[in-house]
Design a protein that fits this description.
Elements lengths: L6 E5 L3 E6 L7 E7 L11 H4 L29 E4 L11 E7 L2 E8 L4 E9 L6 E9 L5 E6 L2 E5 L3 E10 L2 E9 L5 E5 L11 E6 L2 E7 L5 E7 L5 E7 L6 E3 L4 E3 L3 E6 L2 H15 L13 E3 L1 H4 L5 H14 L3 E4 L29 H9 L3 E6 L3 E2 L4 H5 L19 E2 L5 H17 L2 E6 L17 H18 L4 E4 L17 E3 L6 H12 L7 E6 L12 H8 L3 E5 L7 H17 L1
Parallel strand pairs: 21-22, 21-30, 22-23, 23-26, 26-27, 27-28, 28-29, 29-30
Antiparallel strand pairs: 1-2, 2-3, 4-9, 5-6, 6-7, 7-8, 8-19, 8-20, 9-18, 10-17, 11-12, 11-14, 13-16, 14-15, 15-20, 16-17, 24-25
Helix pairs in contact: 7-8, 9-10, 10-11
This protein binds (2R,3S,4R,5S)-2-(hydroxymethyl)piperidine-3,4,5-triol.
Length: 588
């Protein structure tokens, strides 16, 4: 239905938003907060309600859905782009609004710069989560270089006072950081090429009697900032962070932003509940629905690289005894992989450890009634690998710059079709040869020298290529579930969760540390996708010793797993673990 009223109103279960449509301009943000009674809202256009301050432009420019640049809005714009130094002042000259139930699509065109921006807003009445995305079209006849496109511009009330974001590193994910909002800009920007441990792509803003949350569904570089607005409110922008020259739109081309999920509630717990509901609704499960989460055994901390087929079969026997339902063979199974210095890229079973391939172990596991899962790290390559010796040019690199390894590895340029074809063929062969129903998909380093073949920055191309590879593998093997892992929790976001079904929350499975890590995780994501394992009594990461009851109770609210050598548990511990696993099955 085309909009004729000045008000664009969307109602959720507990929240509402109101935009004021103004002919020939971007709609003005009037309200986002607790649900308004039907029919309530502003009565008068904003410019009639307030005078312009003295010595200011005579034409008032309040916060809009797409703040412009250079025409009287002095805050951060939603778009920074230019054509060779020209056409840098986006300001809508025409606006069309279509509203349909809980959604509104607003298209702004600027006849001067020949740029169009379309913002899509949906306020889901069940979860109360507002989903926003933005599309930029170059309607001119010369390329448009884009430096910033806000995926969402959100208003925050004048009583917003504190922003809680989450930082961290390997083994210490989701560390809450609280900053008071001041007139200086609050900003978090991630340039690590993937979601990152230290810059969780979302935050919660606490106001008097209300909390506002937002997160961006994107697994690459991202930026969010909160700016004070002259009228006392705040604007919160989130979007992809672009490297110089990374997006140059050809005439007629379109740039689509990732989605932002945003919600407001009475407090941070309400924000978490709404996010959980929205993500739950939109996860893409094999068969269309989540089945009860199978209890895992993961081999990493019990065996590390020390794979021995007979010992792993004994481990599987002990796991089945304990009630475990999915056996995940972690790192160490492939060609010459005896430590973390070699072999990434050589995705076939090691002939010494698995002389008859993975079939015998996989069949042993499935005969015990468990699913078989396998660890891979597709986007990586070790310089000491057959793949690197054959294709040194396949690693992301920049001419004239040294290659920088991390954990002895480089990153593959998976945007090159021949590279993603190679990875697809290798993974497809593994999944076709064995009854593998689960992939733990790791990514153990940040991106550096992330240059494409032509020298351009390849960060966002890498993310899109990873999403395409996930999708291709899922299309070929629709029954397979995927876990997103990145040195623990370095790739946890709703973008990767559109393709995956679980995340590995942290390599730290010390239960004491996990309490805080999991609390931070749960601010944004639901518990059933939160990988949570019972580790050995003495935690490998911290050296602290903890009782079985404490370790199991902390893991119980997530997707439960066990990560220890179950062959060597005492009788008492084995019985206790079995009882906790049974409790999980009763409750899940
Ligand atoms: C990092 C992961 O977080 C661990 O769980 C494990 O899979 C190792 N990589 C294997 O190299």
């Amino acid at each position: 239905m085309a909009q004729s009223e000045p008000w664009i109103v969307l109602h959720g279960r507990g929240s509402s938003l109101v935009l004021e449509a103004v002919p020939g301009e971007a709609p003005l943000w009037r309200y986002w907060g607790a649900r308004l009674p039907d029919g309530a809202g502003p009565a008068t256009p904003l410019r009639q309600e307030r005078p312009t301050p003295s010595f200011s432009p005579d034409f008032d420019q309040p916060l809009s859905l797409v703040p412009g640049l250079g025409q009287g809005w002095f805050g951060e714009p939603a778009l920074k782009a230019h054509r060779g130094g020209r056409d840098w002042t986006f300001q809508a000259t025409d606006c069309s609004v279509r509203q349909d139930g809980s959604s509104a699509v607003i298209t702004l065109t600027d006849a001067v710069t020949q740029i169009a921006i379309t913002v899509r807003l949906t306020l889901d009445p069940c979860s109360d989560v507002l989903c926003v995305s933005t599309e930029l079209a170059n309607q001119g006849d010369a390329p448009l270089e884009v430096q910033w496109l806000a995926a969402a511009v959100l208003p925050l009330p004048d009583h917003a006072r504190l922003v809680r974001s989450f930082s961290g590193r390997h083994n210490t994910e989701f560390v809450p950081v609280e900053d008071r909002l001041t007139r200086s800009q609050w900003r978090r920007e991630n340039r690590r090429g993937l979601t990152s441990h230290d810059c969780v792509p979302g935050a919660v803003v606490l106001a008097d009697g209300a909390a506002y949350g937002a997160q961006i569904a994107w697994s690459g570089n991202h930026c969010q900032f909160i700016d004070w607005v002259d009228d006392g409110r705040w604007q919160w922008q989130l979007g992809e962070a672009l490297m110089p020259g990374e997006v140059v739109l050809a005439p007629g081309a379109v740039l689509t932003s990732p989605e932002v999920l945003a919600t407001c509630a009475a407090d941070a717990n309400g924000v978490a509940q709404n996010f959980h509901a929205a993500i739950r609704q939109r996860m893409d499960w094999p068969g269309g629905r989540m089945r009860p989460r199978p209890v895992h055994l993961n081999t990493w901390e019990g065996f590390y690289f020390d794979h021995d087929e007979a010992a792993l079969k004994d481990l599987a026997d002990a796991a089945a005894q304990a009630g475990i339902e999915r056996f995940v063979l972690d790192d160490g199974w492939f060609h010459r992989r005896n430590d973390d210095t070699t072999s990434l890229g050589d995705w076939w079973p090691d002939a010494a450890k698995y002389p008859n391939g993975l079939g015998p172990l996989a069949e042993h596991v499935t005969a015990l009634g468990m699913e078989f899962g396998l660890w891979v790290e597709p986007e990586m390559i070790n310089p000491d690998s057959d793949l690197y010796r054959a294709h040194p040019d396949w690693a992301l690199q920049l001419a004239g710059r040294p290659l920088i390894t991390a954990r002895n590895q480089l990153v593959l340029d998976i945007a090159r079709p021949e590279v993603s074809d190679y990875l697809f063929e290798k993974i497809d062969a593994l999944l076709s040869a064995q009854p593998i129903r689960y992939i733990k998909w790791d990514h153990n380093r940040d991106l550096t020298t992330a240059g494409l073949h032509d020298g351009a920055a390849g960060y966002r191309a890498q993310v899109h290529a990873a999403y395409a590879l996930f999708a291709r593998i899922r299309a070929a093997h629709p029954e397979v579930e995927i876990e997103s892992c990145s040195g623990g929790g370095g790739r946890i976001d709703f973008g990767v969760l559109r393709h995956t079904h679980r995340v590995w929350t942290s390599d730290c499975i010390d239960a004491m540390s996990r309490v805080g890590i999991q609390r931070g995780f749960l601010q944004f994501f639901p518990p059933e996708i939160m990988g949570a394992h019972v580790g050995s009594a003495r935690a490998h990461t911290t050296g602290r010793t903890q009782s079985m009851a404490f370790r199991a109770a902390v893991a119980l609210p997530g997707h439960l797993g066990v990560e220890l050598d179950a062959r060597v548990l005492s009788e008492t511990d084995a019985a206790e673990l079995k009882a906790w696993i049974q409790m999980y099955k009763d409750l899940r």
